[in-house]
Amino acid sequence: TVSVLYWCVCLTQRGCLRNVARTVGLVQIQAGQEGMAATSEPSSAPTFLLTVDVLELVCEAVSCSFDNARTLLALRACSRPWAEAVSHAMRQYYCEWKSFEADYTDKTDEMSREAARSEAIDPVPARLCVVCQSYGAVRGWLRDIPAVVLRDRNPARLARDLRVVLSHVPRVSTLRFERNGSALSPEAMESIATIPAATLEGLYITCAAQNGSTANSPRRIPALPALQTLDVSNAEFMTDDVLAGVLRESQHLRTLRLQDVQCVSDAALVSVSKHCAGLVALRLAYCWRISEAGLQAVVTRCLHLRCLELCGVDVTDKVLQSVADRIPALQHLNVGGNKVTDEGLAAVARACTDLRFLQVLHSRVTDAGLSEVARHCRELRGLDIDSMPRGITDAAITAVGRGCPRLQRLVARDDRGTIITDTSLFEVARGCRDLLHVDVETYASSITANGAGAIAQHCRDFRHINLGSGGTVDAGGVVAIANACPDLRCVDLSCTRVSSDALTALATNCLRVAQLRIMGGDASDDAVAAAVQLARHTLRHLGLVDLLHVSDVTFAALAKFGSRLRSLELSSLPQVSTPALIDGLSGCAQLRRLTLGFTAAVTDDVLMATARHCPLLRSLHVSSTAIGDVSLVAVTPVFRELERLELKYLPGATDASLAA
Predict the structure, then answer these.
(1) Is 14 left (phi over 0), alpha (psi -120 to 50) or beta?
(2) How many angstroms separate the Cα of 606 from the Cα of each of 581, 596, 616, 640?
């Protein structure tokens, strides 16, 4: 039985015999030096050290995707050796997934407004990871629980899922509650108290809104003495008293993030300053009741801060001056608001010379402030500027290129007065040889193939590029980057004149592309289809917008090679047909986000096909299509995982579908 299973695995994987032996190291293959195909003599059968070794190979061959996880569940129920083999396969899958996440997001993306990452691990494999902890040669390997395991809006089911997790994973290090709404009850919180005191180090609570009712909301968070990270976003139950209670027992807290928490005020920050003097990272966003007084309390007493993010709170030059005076070792700063000027930013730049990441949003900072940063912060790795009313020009970006040789990330997004051209981009490329990420979306910028060529010439480890919105990069610039930067991960070709040759060069040379957006250009249907095929192993996010030649060939490629896609954007595709759209979506079973717009072929049949083929869809955006009440009413019960629905300009949709 072992031999039969082994040879089936090998034959279905097209000659991966040697790879299996090399990577697993548990199979001894007695074959000739030239391999099986080189001789007409029958090869001797392999010798396995243990029966479970081949079972592990079988489970790895099955794979742990959403479609195949149920097969592993069935195999796991056969016997204990099978259960151990499944546990091994799940450990391999989970570790590879975490590795892909870390590689794709990249450390320089810590400041990203929308972190580039693939969607959460699939629900069934995630739960299978949990129950596999008692089997296999390596046990208890899962400590960071994927958020999807505890994503339920029913209080009883959420409490049950949490009990199951704690029964199989005795040493949980991180728990994540995302989009649970009012299901995050006192019972669930009390279950956390059963975790051994020295294990839980991270607690993340996102979108725990009670919809105006506080009867079933948690009154407290249990004592967590080992807690190092507390991340709370849009949680109505989080008040000054609740936060103060957990802070009193969390003397080792290192990271605190509060986003859109409206019941937290300066009193909470005073508690932070009293109980968490060793705090390393404080991230505050859109907490409107926090003022300058609370920020001053933290800055005065938390002298070990290395990361300070203040977005949507009352940040002034006076606060930044206190930061400069009290925290000279600061490395990561995110500030926004129209009270921040060149004076405050310059004070931080002169004092915090080890600054690594700087993000400035919606402020009155000009070229003068950024020039001070370039003059004093030579260790700067990342710079994000967004929506600057007074504008940023080539002068500031040139100064950054000359003064910050270790820069890895440059992002400039603005629809106002910011102007960036080839001149400054050339200085950045020439002066910052470690550059990995350039994202320029400014209305008045003028970046051509010369700027793209400078990146190709000087930055060989480049990974992320977006030169859209006003850029005039042609096919030559794209080809130059594709040929010189094989490690590209994210490519946004919006507003670039992309030809078939440029797209082919990109797909052929850059084999690790995970995100690709093509907008405009003259790329042919065959070229787009070839790009989808070549990037099938790594591509997670694909956008096809305003492409006149894309039609059935591209969607046939999606049907065959789109199984790993997590998000898909289809807009302004006049040549595509309804059957082709349905065929393409049939191969995208892992989709979490789908955007359909300005395409006549998007009809009720397409939406119903989406419901059949994309069961894990969480976000659906539809605009200016022929979709109407028929499909909207029909698919409402099917999209059980749907969390966001956006409908715009649908003449066929009425109140009936919205009510459903």
Answers:
(1) left
(2) 7, 10, 16, 18
CA distances from residue 9 to 24, 182, 305 in whole angstroms, order as listed: 14, 47, 53
Highest-confidence segment of 4-13, 110-119, 445-454, 467-476: 445-454
Long-range contacts of 62-68 (CB under 8 A, 24+ apart): 62/89, 63/93, 64/89, 64/90, 64/93, 64/125, 64/128, 65/122, 65/125, 65/563, 65/590, 66/122, 66/123, 66/124, 66/125, 66/589, 66/590, 66/616, 67/589
Q: Render pLDDT for 110-162 as a digit per residue (tens, 0 to 9).
A: 333 333 333 556 778 888 889 888 888 888 888 888 888 888 888 888 989 99
Q: Which of 21, 24, 27 is nearest to 2 (CA)?
A: 27
Helices (H), 77-171: 80-105, 123-131, 155-168
Q: Encoding tokens for residue 218?
A: 């948690």
Length of the chain: 660
Q: What angle do CA 131, 132, 137 make, to 5 degrees?
A: 155
Please state whether the predicted TM-score (pTM) of the whole model is above 0.90.
no
Q: How far apart are CA 515 and CA 657, in angstroms?
A: 33
For 660, other C-beta atoms within 10 Å of its C-beta total 12
Tell me what percent of the chain is helix, strand and coil, each rounded to the nearest 5: 40, 15, 45
CA distance 444 to 413: 11
pLDDT single digits (tens) 184-228: 888 888 888 888 877 899 999 988 765 555 556 788 888 889 999
Query: Which two tokens mark 596?
Result: 């359909």
**What is the H or E stretch that residue 292 is in?**
helix 292-301
What is the Cα–Cα distance from 220 to 585, expressed in whole angstroms? 45
Pairing of strands 47-48, 27-28: antiparallel
Lowest pLDDT segment from 14-28, 527-541, 629-643: 14-28
- Which residues are 412's β-sheet partners? 385, 440
C-alpha distances out from residue 187 to 184, 208, 216, 224, 231, Å: 8, 14, 9, 16, 20
